[in-house]
Amino acid sequence: MSATDSGAGFESPCLTAKQAAVYLHLNEKKLYELANSREIPAARIGGKWLFPRQLLDDWLLEQAHGGLFTDRLLIAGSGDPLLAAAVDALAPDLGAQALVAYSATGAVPGIEQLVRRRVELSLLHWGDAQHSVAQHATLLRSYPGHARWTLVRVALREQGVLLRPRFAGQPLEKLAGQEVRWAMRRAGSGSQHFLASALTDCGLRVEDCSAVTTAGSERDAVALLARDEADCTPGSRAAATEAGLAFLALGWAALDVALPREVFFRHLFQQLLARLGAPDLRHLAARLGGYDLTPLGQVLPL
Asked: CA neighbours within 13 Å on the CB side: how many for 221?
């Protein structure tokens, strides 16, 4: 047996099947079973299996936990009606066996919670969909611990301004220039960041808008419009449809989740992805409008 076959060269970022079997103290038959069932991180390239060594280490650590914290999935970050619906739909299936909970804190606060390991997932959107891969990677790389994270795409989502019906059809320039009452979002909100970029493209600033209050979440902002305490707020088409509000489209953003690599392999996370892709959730996405679920589950580079 050669040095390569015996497992030497473990410093390589990718291991062959023989090397991985030695590394994990498994026989090759069992290793192939795990790879074919997608229970272990592996990639089939040119008819051969390759095993990323770092992901093997993460997977092994996850197995060694003996189930510690694998029965919970705490989600923070950007608010989204479809993700909230998926969590609500998953909860009855889990019963008392596991906990999946979602707190819409805003994109940047969600990442900060992820840094502190208070949550397992953080949903974010930061800028337009076209540049999202680079923008999200740049944002996440500014935080300690990002090297152990994975970025997974959930959907593309239409962003804009939610409006009380009497303001329907008004362009952004008029909404910013008139005495229109804005419910702005907190610093670190992806929707607020998207609005600021759209205003800049029009030669305007957030300060040009008549802000009367600041909402802590998209649902808080919708409630302000419902109570006639504000006329418009940045947010998604889905939220506007859900609340029966008018909507001014400004563009598309990408919804991604950042998570530790070991969490990616947890059954709870995979169940959540499966729930998002289920027919009833896809039907809901179509009814709400402003979603493209084509890239659901795509792993992105950091």
From this structure: 33
**pTM as predicted:** 0.77
Q: Please, are residues 297 and 161 in contact by the beta-carbon 8 Å criterion? A: no
Contact present, 116 and 69 (Cβ < 8 Å): no
Alpha-carbon span 43 to 172, nearest angstrom: 47
pLDDT (tens digit, 9 = 90+) per residue, 12-34?
789 999 999 999 999 999 999 98
**Nearest alpha carbon to residue 104 among 86, 84, 88, 89:** 84
Residue ranges of the chain whose pLDDT lies below 70: 1-10, 62-70
Which pairs from 275-281 meet CB under 8 Å and 24+ separation?
A: 275/86, 275/89, 275/90, 276/82, 276/83, 276/86, 276/154, 276/155, 278/89, 280/89, 281/82, 281/85, 281/86, 281/89
